[in-house]
């Protein structure tokens, strides 16, 4: 991620400089090396593009630097490979000052950058030439206008050498010297790889051109043996025998390249295994210079090594990561509070490459955003010391969020250090916490997608029962531990259950920002609406069993792909629950602080013989009473009752053609229905505990016979009880009749339920996850939205009822 971000930034920077530095790598550009040297490179450290030559050059005396710059303007350059300041072999090139298109205001350097092209790499580093004759232009019949041509002006050493070579070849053809000797004499290091490579880093073309010159000379004689250079001709480099390039040299070079294309490679006789050894060419045609290797491919020069390329091209080019334009991660990004560090929502405005924290081992480089919630933002970071990639939750700077997040940190500390030190029960691990610019930052282990994202990836199709079982078992394991520790999570939902890795079905529970001890249930407005237990909606004291309700909703959602109770408001939420599962027991309604808001007491005449004493208000009654507009509840599923919804959910494609698999699936579904019945019991006192649910055949994979009783419970397991809308419940083929009304065995004692009498609504402090649904076009093709979190994607979703 770091890399990609850097790349992001790099490309931005590069674009910015694109007009400045077209793709250039000419001889003249080699001067960039020394040009850069005069700049302040102290910030560069040991970064990839900061070769030693830059640093060393930068240590030069200012006078030397000035001198150097003057030399640069004469097209001298510092060889980036061997640190030697050398005069370019082509320094005598007449640069086209007289060009028509040269703007009089334009500096020569700028002109060169504008006119140059990467097609021709910068001149190779001149170095001591192993071939003396390379110092002289080769004689060919075509270059008779060269200085020192056939008119007898060649130095005698050169002529002697040529003569010697001709003799050697003749001797070889006569068979007086063996081929190997001939080769090695003729080309002193032809088969010496080291030498070959060394030469390749030099002006290999020089050799190549001389070689072919000799070849052509030799062929003029009696020779019938083709002497073939083992090297690919480096036509991109101007051969030393070429005349100095004249304007327009680019065109000349192009012509030259084209002319060289005509040379047809010839076959070489293969007499031994060694002849089959491939000869790799370290400086193939069109390769560009780089600073840390001799040549690089064009692709690399304009991608991975773009910065190097620019540094070679432009003396003005400087690159500093810290100066990159930073990608802002926070929205809105206008600084409004906290001295401009925070936006209007008191969220710290985060940028890619920001560093959170100041202490040596507590500096975290911001890489990307992972999620945003009520309490703040979660960003992917790298610990600058350990290089570990982590998730940092940057809490809003307001006191109420800070206080609540301190509670989250304390609960996580308790879970990590005391309750689950061995990291076996699927709780998020917290590594560190610190304050940055008035923001509490909690450092967590980095996890992968949450379950909502997983469903989204699955196009909101349900998961397999097998996978649901795996996930449910792990969540139940966590809930067992929480219950034993008398802790309530209070915000269980798919967004707060994260995969440890994208490819493993291992989960962790996150976000303990709403969590509380069972004995201190001070907040009454808790849980995200879709996963909100009926006792919270009605306003009665609550316990760890609210997490079991949320679990039931999550399990149903994993099966169906979409939430089972996607309430558009609290009223709508309760309506959906009652429609699907029936009425809560009367004692809950009697006791609930909010019951009067949603329920109406039945008169004796209305209730008749039924045990039902209440009914939910009609939408008209509710809207009239509260003077609000409540949209009619949209139906996502064709069926209303939970067992029908599950039974009639479409089969996965993989089993559609096998009756045996369908029967197996239906058996599993019956087991799931029974499990959900026990977990989604409206009566929190009868709702299964996580320990009980763990023993259900849906989890244990024991055979399900249609009946199951939680051990230690005198209550029967759930049957299919449905309210017929008149306050009466009837069985739908269930094996037992189950009265959902208040059970005399369970007289609700508010004192026993964790002292919830003093509940306080803390307003914005508590997590108000108001999930707002919008209208859907019809019952079976629907969209709905959720206020916060990734569920917003739901907005765009068309849910098709199976
Ligand atoms: N450790 C982590 N690794 C990867 N992603 C994470 C991690 N922690 C949180 N996230 C992502 O950030 C999102 C928000 O995190 P979290 O729920 O802790 O914030 P919040 O402000 O408490 O949110 P909420 O409004 O749901 O209470 C999560 O849904 C998840 O996608």
Automatic annotation (TrEMBL):
GO molecular function: ATP binding; protein serine/threonine kinase activity; protein tyrosine kinase activity
Compositionally biased region (Basic and acidic residues): 719-734
Location in or out of the cell: Cytoplasm
Keyword Lyase set for record: no
Region (Disordered): 1-72, 117-184, 709-757
Residue stretches making up the Protein kinase domain: 364-699
Keywords: ATP-binding, Cytoplasm, Kinase, Nucleotide-binding, Phosphoprotein, Serine/threonine-protein kinase, Transferase
Stretches with biased composition (Low complexity): 1-21, 56-72, 159-174, 739-757
Residues reported in the UniProt entry to bind ATP: 393
Key word Cytoplasm present: yes
Bias-annotated ranges (Polar residues): 22-55, 138-158
Family note: Belongs to the protein kinase superfamily. CMGC Ser/Thr protein kinase family. MNB/DYRK subfamily.
Designated name of the protein: Protein kinase domain-containing protein
Native source species: Saccharomyces mikatae IFO 1815
């Amino acid at each position: 991620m770091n890399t990609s971000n850097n790349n992001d930034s790099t490309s931005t920077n590069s674009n910015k400089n694109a007009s400045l530095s077209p793709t250039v790598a000419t001889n003249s550009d080699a001067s960039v090396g020394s040009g850069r040297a005069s700049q302040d490179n102290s910030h560069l450290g040991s970064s990839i593009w900061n070769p030693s030559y830059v640093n060393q050059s930068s240590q030069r005396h200012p006078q030397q630097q000035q001198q150097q710059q003057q030399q640069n303007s004469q097209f001298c350059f510092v060889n980036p490979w061997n640190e030697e300041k050398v005069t370019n072999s082509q320094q005598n090139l007449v640069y086209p000052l007289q060009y028509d298109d040269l703007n009089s205001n334009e500096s020569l350097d700028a002109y060169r950058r504008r006119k140059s092209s990467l097609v021709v790499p910068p001149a190779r580093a001149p170095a001591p030439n192993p071939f003396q004759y390379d110092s002289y232009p080769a004689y060919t019949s075509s270059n008779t206008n060269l200085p020192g041509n056939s008119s007898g002006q060649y130095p005698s050493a050169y002529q002697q050498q040529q003569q010697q070579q001709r003799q050697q070849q003749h001797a070889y053809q006569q068979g007086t010297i063996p081929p190997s000797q001939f080769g090695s004499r003729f080309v002193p290091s032809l088969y010496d790889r080291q030498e070959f490579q060394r030469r390749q880093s030099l002006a290999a073309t020089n050799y190549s051109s001389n070689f072919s010159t000799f070849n052509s000379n030799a062929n003029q004689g009696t020779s019938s043996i083709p002497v073939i250079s083992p090297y690919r001709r480096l036509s991109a480099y101007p051969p030393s025998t070429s005349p100095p390039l004249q304007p327009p040299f680019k065109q000349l070079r192009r012509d030259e390249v084209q002319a060289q294309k005509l040379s047809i490679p010839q076959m070489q006789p293969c007499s031994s295994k060694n002849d089959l050894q491939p000869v790799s060419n370290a400086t193939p045609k069109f390769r560009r210079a780089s600073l840390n290797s001799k040549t690089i491919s064009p692709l690399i020069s304009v991608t991975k090594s773009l910065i190097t390329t620019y540094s070679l091209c432009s003396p003005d080019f400087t690159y500093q990561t810290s100066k990159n334009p930073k990608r802002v991660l926070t929205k809105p990004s206008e600084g409004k509070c906290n001295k401009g560090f925070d936006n209007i929502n008191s969220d710290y405005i985060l940028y890619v490459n920001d560093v959170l924290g100041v202490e040596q081992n507590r500096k975290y480089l911001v890489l990307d955003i992972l999620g945003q919630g009520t309490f703040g933002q979660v960003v992917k970071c790298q610990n600058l010391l350990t290089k570990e990639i982590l998730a940092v939750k940057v809490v809003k700077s307001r006191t109420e969020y800070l206080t609540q997040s301190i509670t989250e940190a304390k609960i996580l500390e308790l879970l990590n250090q005391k309750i689950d030190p061995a990291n076996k029960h699927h709780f998020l691990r917290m590594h560190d916490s610190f304050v940055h610019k008035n923001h509490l930052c909690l450092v967590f282990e980095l996890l992968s997608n949450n379950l909502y994202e997983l469903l989204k990836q699955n196009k909101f199709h349900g998961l397999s029962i097998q996978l649901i079982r795996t996930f449910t078992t792990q969540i139940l394991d966590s809930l067992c531990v929480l219950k034993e520790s008398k802790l309530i999570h209070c915000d269980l939902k798919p967004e707060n259950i994260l995969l440890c890795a994208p490819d493993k079905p291992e989960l962790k529970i996150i976000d303990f920002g709403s969590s509380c001890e069972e004995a201190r249930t001070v907040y009454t407005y808790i849980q995200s609406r879709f996963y909100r237990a009926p006792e919270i909606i009605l306003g009665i004291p609550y316990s760890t069993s609210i997490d079991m309700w949320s679990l039931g909703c999550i399990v149903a959602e994993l099966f169906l792909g979409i939430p089972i109770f996607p309430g558009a408001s609290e009223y709508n939420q309760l309506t959906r629950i009652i429609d699907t599962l029936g009425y809560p027991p009367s004692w809950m309604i009697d006791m609930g602080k909010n019951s009067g808001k949603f329920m109406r007491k039945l008169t004796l005449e209305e209730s008749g013989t039924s045990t039902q004493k209440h009914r939910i208000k009609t939408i008209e009654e509710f809207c009239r009473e509260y003077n609000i507009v409540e949209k009619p509840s949209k139906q996502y599923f064709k069926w209303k009752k939970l067992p029908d919804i599950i039974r009639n959910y479409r089969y996965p494609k993989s089993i559609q053609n096998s009756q045996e698999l369908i029967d197996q699936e239906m058996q599993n579904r019956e087991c799931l229905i029974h499990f959900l019945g026990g977990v989604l019991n409206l009566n929190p006192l009868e709702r299964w505990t996580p320990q009980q649910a763990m023993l259900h055949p849906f989890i244990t994979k024991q055979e399900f016979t249609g009946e199951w009783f939680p051990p230690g419970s005198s209550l029967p397991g759930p049957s299919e009880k449905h309210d017929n809308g008149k306050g009466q419940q009837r069985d739908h083929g269930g094996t037992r009749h189950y009265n959902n009304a208040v059970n005399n065995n369970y007289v609700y004692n508010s004192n026993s339920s964790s002292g919830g009498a003093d509940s306080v609504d803390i307003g914005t402090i508590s997590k108000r996850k108001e999930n707002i649904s919008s209208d859907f076009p019809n019952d079976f093709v629907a969209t709905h939205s959720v206020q916060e979190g990734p569920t917003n994607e739901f907005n765009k979703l068309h849910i098709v009822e199976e």
